[in-house]
Amino acid sequence: MNEKKGGHPLINLGAAPFLNMRPLIYPLEKGLVEHSFNIMYFDPFLLSGNLSEGVIDVAPIPSVEFLRTDDYCILPDISISSFGKVDSVILKARKEITKITSVSVDSRSKSSTALLRIVLELFLGLTPEYVKRSPGNVFLEEVDAGMLIGNAGLGSRHLCRDNSLLTYDLGELWTEETALPFVYALMATRKGDGATAEACRCLVSTRDKGVGLIREIADIESRKLGLSREQCETYLQHRIKYDLDDAKVEGLTRYRDLLFELGEIEKKNEMDFHAALS
Fold first, then answer.
1. Using CB atoms within 10 A of its CB, is residue 38 exposed (0-12), middle (13-18) or buried (19+)?
2. Which of 9, 80, 157, 159 lies 20 to 30 A from 268 at CA?
3. Helix 214-225 to helix 22-29 angle, to the nearest 10 degrees?
């Protein structure tokens, strides 16, 4: 925690520049919700490490990072999830997905790479080679397919002009197979640390306020990303879900079980929720 604001210790809240996180942060930035957070911005792939090391107290971290350890607890009723198409976790392929033998993956993304392994290996019975790369012009060189995520995935979905490439949406493939939502990220804190009941309620209120401001957020962010406002609004309003209901917890549990089957996690940890709102 940091210095005090209005007599309350500041809680270090991690944030990242992905479009799908904006409704969870934007109202705090604009002072639309009274809060005691010190917002700290990082590359999205650094959030879980900084949470583990105590640099930040609360953050939306990839679900796979939460499931790898029993050091964290979930703040209730907040997630970044989808049911069906997500538009921002995309596989671009030179051939049909059932014929893929090599695929490039973002070297920084563990969560989406684990989802890709589940889809290709467990759902489709494939054994492809995974090539770790940074997104760029050579991402698809000498491989059958490449997975793009986040803002890069969203741009690939809407801006790619190469009609020879097939596009597969991993959120859609997950839901077609499981009939469940997929949880990409959870708002988490270290056990016994970080978030008070007041902070938990504030984050839920911020989520609600942010969802109500999606059109405004889409208008601002579309200019940064080179997308249309309608594309950003559709993504935030109809693709991404921000709650954590029973179906999403069930989807998260299925994800944990499949990660264990693949050897991506060592054991099936219980999913602990923050006691403040339980």
1. middle
2. 80
3. 100
**pLDDT tens-place string over residues 99-136:** 999 999 987 777 788 999 999 999 999 999 999 887 77
Give me the CATH number covering residue 132.
Answer: 3.40.190.10
Cα(257)–Cα(67) distance, integer angstroms: 10
Residue 59 tokens, joined: 């953050």
Q: Which of 118, 143, 178 is the last residue of a domain?
A: 178
DSSP string, 121-142: IIIS----EEEEE-SSTTTTTT
Total number of domains constituting the chain: 2
| Boundaries of domain holding 162 | 89-178
Q: How many helices (H) and strands (E) does the chain have?
A: 10, 12
Which uninterrupted H or E stretch holds 106?
A: strand 102-106
Q: How far apart are CA 80 and CA 240, in angstroms?
A: 6
